[in-house]
Write a structure and sequence with these properties.
It is built from 23 helices and 10 strands. By secondary structure, the chain is of the alpha+beta class. Belongs to the acyl-CoA dehydrogenase family.
């Protein structure tokens, strides 16, 4: 009997947006540096002086990093993991013995109780030894069962699951489905109430850690019925429950040791006590979890940047061309400068965002999203530049280099491994839209009803009056500011150091310009603003550069006052800010001078078949089969490849 086509919920674009809007946090109860930045205000008081961890937290974190470094050097063979496409069981068991599964779990549950800052440092360290292990630990703690339980779990759930997760049990997060990515309104996996349990059916795709997981956090749709609000809901599910089948372990261009699979649920009974939060709160739980969970990806990007810098330095000092080391040829030297300066800035963004998350004084939802977006994009560029610096050797595998007697440098591997970060936990395109929505939140709060087609004229009139009052006060503040005063931010120009105050004045002026540009765009496009994704993406990218400039300057001043590397830190910050300002100006120019409209016409032509003649002269090596696999609910017809670590 052939499988029946999966019945996806039918939703319009507007309905899908309403689901996403209902899931996001509606209010801003705490200040946000990045939110203020998009409104044209450079609130340096929110990030300077740079917040610092309590001494006891730092001591505990440093002690664990010392142990982890020894383990990485002595027990992790990254080349073996790459060759065998598998993390050896003994390595995972060693990680468990170290307590690394519980880095972010409170001490009272058997965890290490590390801060976000030191958790990120640990991920950067272990990710440099093996990106696959970094991904395993990140998926387990940043988006897996521990984090949503920590925020939303009951005392009974925490007591039952967190001790296991801290020491022995690996967790995975299951949201994506074969035909559902960043549009959860179409989620098809169901959890039907049945007495004191729910019966779960559906198929989940790209379940990182799913192949080896012991506990799962699963997002499923509860049908609305008497006594049940229904909606997308989060559950903790035992991975060995009857009816769960891991049908495939997926293979990728990078992260070859990643235990990522396809998981089928057929009539799986999940105790009602395992539901996290109320029915219908699943997406809000997922998004709230990701507010800080996203910081794990830029942590590993920082580690990658540090490694790229090390290899670029060592290689470029010994490789000679035309009588001198290649590093001293400007074409190569500019790449090394970019890697060094960008690594400094990424670490500044990461540490600042993480420390703010630890202090919990600020709302960091935009900062964390910017860190993920900026880190994933810039790390890929740095890795690509390293491959170019290494030349043919950059394209050659580490095993091949070793086989002919040269140092086994996995430059091509890091480029492959980093590429997924632009897709993981919200693709760059989705991150642009998510951040843009938060960036224009203040505007939508006062003027949203004006452009909402479902609102009556009375609501539009009231919104118009509110908007007039808001903009009458706000717009004049965007004309002048500290960025036009020569002595502003003078503490960032100490004697004998590069002048970082000039970069902060630039950031302040640019923040106001960014806010004005957003207002002009809303005035011009109104209800069509949400379709201008190219424009919104550039707005967000400008904000990311300005955030990075601010963080780099604050970090340089911190290092000047607390370490012996102040002068060098100022030099790196100065180099980064100058490079960033060039990119920022280009983005500002492209806000209004671009090919967005023409691109749209070309796309319509491509999809209508107008340009199929351009595809002639090739053969397509792709295999047969549907673009998206059938995922109809029902019993599994495949072998279970789930393999818990023993």
């Amino acid at each position: 009997m052939s499988a029946q086509p999966i019945q996806q919920p039918k939703v319009s674009e507007r309905e899908a947006r309403q689901v996403a809007e209902a899931a996001r946090e509606q209010d801003w109860r705490k200040p946000s540096f990045a939110k203020e930045l998009f409104l044209g205000r450079l609130r340096m008081d929110l990030i300077h002086p740079h917040p610092m961890p309590p001494p006891e937290d730092a001591a505990r974190g440093e002690a664990f990093l010392d142990k982890l470094r020894v383990f990485c050097e002595e027990k992790i063979d990254g080349a073996r993991i790459e060759r065998e496409a598998k993390i050896p069981d003994e390595v995972i068991n060693g990680i468990k013995e170290l307590g690394a599964l519980g880095m972010k779990i409170d001490i009272k549950y058997g965890g290490l109780g590390l801060t976000q800052v030191y958790y990120n440092k640990a991920l950067a360290l272990v990710g440099s030894a093996s990106p696959a292990i970094g991904a395993l630990l990140s998926a387990h703690q940043s988006i897996g069962v521990p984090q949503p339980l920590k925020i939303f779990g009951t005392r009974e759930q925490k007591d039952a699951f967190l001790p296991r997760l801290a020491r022995t049990d690996i967790s995975a997060f299951l949201l994506t489905e074969p035909d559902v990515g960043s549009d959860p309104a179409r989620l098809a996996t169901t959890a039907v109430p049945d007495g004191d349990a729910y019966v779960m059916d559906g198929v989940k795709l790209w379940t990182t850690n799913g192949v080896v997981a012991d506990l799962l956090v699963v997002m499923a749709r509860v049908p609305k019925s008497q006594g049940h609000k229904g909606g997308i809901t989060a559950f903790v599910v035992e991975a060995d429950s009857p009816g769960i089948t891991v049908e495939n372990r997926n293979a990728f261009m990078g992260l070859r040791g990643l235990e990522n699979g396809v998981t089928r649920f057929h009539q799986v009974r999940v105790p009602a006590a395992n539901r996290i939060g109320p029915e219908g709160a699943g997406l809000k739980i997922a998004l709230t979890t990701l507010n800080t969970g996203r910081l794990s990806l830029p942590a590993m990007c920082v580690g990658a940047g540090k490694w790229c810098l090390k290899i670029a330095r060592e290689w470029s000092s010994v490789r000679e061309q035309w009588g001198k080391p290649v590093a001293f040829h400007e074409a190569v030297g500019s790449k090394i400068s970019f890697i060094a300066a960008t690594t400094f800035a990424l670490e500044a963004v990461l540490d600042l965002s993480s420390q703010m998350a630890d202090e919990d004084r600020n709302d960091i939802r935009i900062e964390a999203a910017l860190a993920k977006l900026y880190g994933s994009e810039m790390a890929c560029l740095m890795a690509d530049e390293l491959v170019q610096i290494r030349g043919g050797r950059g394209f050659e595998t580490a095993d091949s280099l070793a086989a002919r007697g040269e140092r086994a440098v996995p430059a091509e591997q890091i480029l492959r491994d980093l590429r997924i970060n632009r897709i993981f936990e919200g693709s760059t395109e989705i991150m642009h839209l998510l951040i843009a929505r938060e960036a224009v939140d203040a505007h939508l709060k006062v003027a949203g009803d004006i452009i909402d087609p479902d609102k009556p004229l009375s609501a539009k009139a009231k919104a118009g009056a509110n908007a007039a009052g808001f903009y009458a006060k706000w717009l004049p503040k965007l004309v002048t500011g500290p960025g036009q005063l020569p002595r502003s931010y003078a503490e960032f120009h100490p004697s004998g150091h590069p002048d970082l105050s000039a970069h902060l004045r630039y950031a302040e002026r640019s923040a106001r310009k960014l806010a004005r540009s957003t207002f002009y765009a809303m005035s011009r496009w109104q209800g069509r603003m949400e379709t201008k994704q190219g424009f919104l993406g550039r707005i967000v990218d400008i904000g990311a550069e300005l955030f990075a400039i601010s963080a780099a300057c604050v970090r340089a001043e911190l290092l000047r006052t607390t370490t012996d590397h102040g002068r060098e830190a100022y030099q790196l910050a100065d180099a980064f800010c100058r490079q960033s300002r060039i990119r920022t100006e280009e983005l500002f120019n492209r806000l209004w001078t671009n090919t967005d409209d023409l691109d749209h016409k070309v796309v319509k032509g491509v999809l209508s078949g107008t340009y199929t003649w351009l595809e002639q002269g090739i053969v397509d090596p792709s295999g047969e089969g549907p673009w998206i696999a059938e995922a109809a609910p029902g019993p599994s017809q495949r072998e279970n490849v789930h393999r818990p670590i023993r």
